[in-house]
Amino acid sequence: MSRVTRIKAFLDYMFPLSLYVPGGVATFFAGYLATYAIAGVENIQITLAAGIGAVSTVLFMLLMRLYDELKDVETDLRLGKAGDPRFKDRPIVTGAVLKEDIVFLRWLVTGILVFINLFLINTIAIYPFVVMFVVGWLSFKWFFIPAISKNLLLALITHNPIAILQIAYVIGIFASIEGVNNLVMDHLYLVVALWLHVAAWETSRKIRLPADETDYQTYSSMLGWRLATLMPLIFSVLSSVCLGVLTIKGLFPIWFLMVLIVVTSVVVLKCLLLLFLPTTKRTLLKPVIEGYLLVVNFGLIVASLLA
After folding, report:
1. DSSP H or E stretch at residue 129
2. Which backbone phi and psi does 215 adopt, to 5 degrees?
3. By the 8 A CB rule, do 243 and 189 touch?
4. Fewer CB within a 10 Å sphere, N or C end of the chain?
5. CATH classification for the domain delimited by 1-184, as one of 3.30.200.20, 1.20.1250.20, 1.10.357.140, 1.20.1050.10
């Protein structure tokens, strides 16, 4: 089996391009177009810089996935061989991909990411990119510090702020085109909302009932499954509140507020069902949060265009 075939097998399972490419592009343009709407700049420009930003968003998402995979190789192999249902079919466990393939892909993605952002070197956007890239790399290195690698909550606290840097990069792309004078205090609501999106997604991935826990560290094993369930619920609600405030201020069409209420209610309902009628199936909150993010991001794109 060739390296290309092995890498394809890895991407198909761990980072399906058919989902993550449009999702990443939508994530970028949700933030980018919302930045225009909040600034009140009517003439939206889709320039080379915006294209670089969209591609970089997808590549950075993939790079962070590769970092996570390399950090977790030994754990994945151990849990997969022990029969953990969430790990036994992963490519690294089945042998469909080798560690050196992931290392190769990491360097390839890194090279492309750095190269395309060289076109931004004379703009303000290069600064958030450099900070985002360096902190992302440091998070990969920091993870191997025992205090972090053995504590999921500490890893969350030290790694999750990278999402703020990603949002700052998107806003930096806008500022490189329209100027920093168009940045206003209301942009902070957007930063917090999009940051909480990532926090909700991250915490939704690692929740299990006591009977389903293994050696793999989860938020539920550290905090208890009830408190762990409240995390993605609270993050989603607070994110929607931030976007709702911007809508009430008249920066987005009022129908977007209705969308936020409906999609957030679905998340709340799913979490409450888990809290009061717990089953193993209901602990799988990640698809619920991903559906929430999909609706909110595409809604934000349309609302920004119609603002």
Report:
1. helix 126-142
2. -70, -15
3. yes
4. N
5. 1.10.357.140
